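Many introductory courses stop at the sequence. We go one step further.
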Amino acid sequence: MGTARTTRERWIDEGLAALVAGGPDAVRVEVLAKRIGVTKGGFYGYFADRQALLDAILDRWRADSVDDVLAAVERTGGERTAQAVLAGQLTFGDKVLPIDMAVREWARRDVGVAERLRDVDNQRMNLLRRVFADRCADEDELEARCLIAFSVAIGSRLLHADHGGRSREQVLETVTRMIVDPVTKPESD
């Protein structure tokens, strides 16, 4: 009876699950092989070593959270605010958000991962800049709106506060309006 083979993608999928569950230290070839139900020898047909798997995990995270999101936004076209909302839903939805949070935690201890995270975050901020550019003539205000929007998208998942009788969704809708709507400046006399 031959040894069961698995795909490279399956190793990456299991690596991502391990990363989310226990951080990068939980991504171990022996443990993943056992979870998949194969010997670890098959691993080396796809990856030179554990670091190669970790790199592939980060590549997949980037593809899922930036490349695929930007492609989906481009395909849908339409109004820029709707594009930003779609990008946020795809980026911080149930599939990508846990991985994103695990990568953020990992980046606190690994300079190379922090550089990759910076690249991803810069691409996300660039999307927001494009979305808000026609609403904000002032570059400082534009940057502030983008930072607030991005911070809310990430930070709202980390807060467990009550909202004085309002649902989290209601508060986030109000925040979205505040960020997206152009500020009306009083006319001077």
